Amino acid sequence: MKKLTSSDLKDLKLLKHYRIIRKWACKTCNLNDADLELLIYLEAIDLFTKNDFKKGTYSYSWDNRRWNRLLKQGWITVWRNRNRTTQKYHIYKVSTKCKQLISRMYRIMLGEEDMPTKLFENNSRYSFTVLQTAIRNVNKDKTR
């Protein structure tokens, strides 16, 4: 298997429309930017503890309700429960819903899929109108 280099990633143009794709994902799933990027980090490490989660939050804005909110909304699930004798802590993983969202973001970055704009069509707020225009431009760009 060939090792990827920085020029290989540059040629893929993965980050060309990352900001628009991230904004679309956040608006569609009612997440903020820090939550989404933290979920991408957690998905990359697969199984994690709450301590791993805390280590991952150091580079994001402080939100002491983030853990409970992501757990309650189904973005994080328990993979193994603790039993107070041999397993002293829970082990978590990101949910299937989260994995599907991240996979979809990757497919959009690679140009395999277009972003839907139906969510933003009936909203007349300026920010939604600008985002909808940006999404249309990304969808038209076939060199992503």
Number of helices: 8
**Principal-axes shape call:** globular
The radius of gyration is 18 Å
Task: Give the name of the CATH architecture.
Answer: Orthogonal Bundle
User: Would you state the CATH class?
Assistant: Mainly Alpha
Largest sheet: 2 strands, antiparallel
How far apart the termini lie comes to 24 Å
**What is the CATH T-level topology?**
Arc Repressor Mutant, subunit A
Number of strands: 2
Strand content: 5-15%
- The helicity comes to 55-70%
Mean pLDDT: 90
> How do the SSEs run, as a string of H and E?
HHHHHEEHHH
In the predicted model, the low-confidence regions spanning at least 5 consecutive residues are none
Helix and strand composition category: mainly alpha
Jot down its keywords:
mainly alpha, Arc Repressor Mutant, subunit A, 56% helix, globular
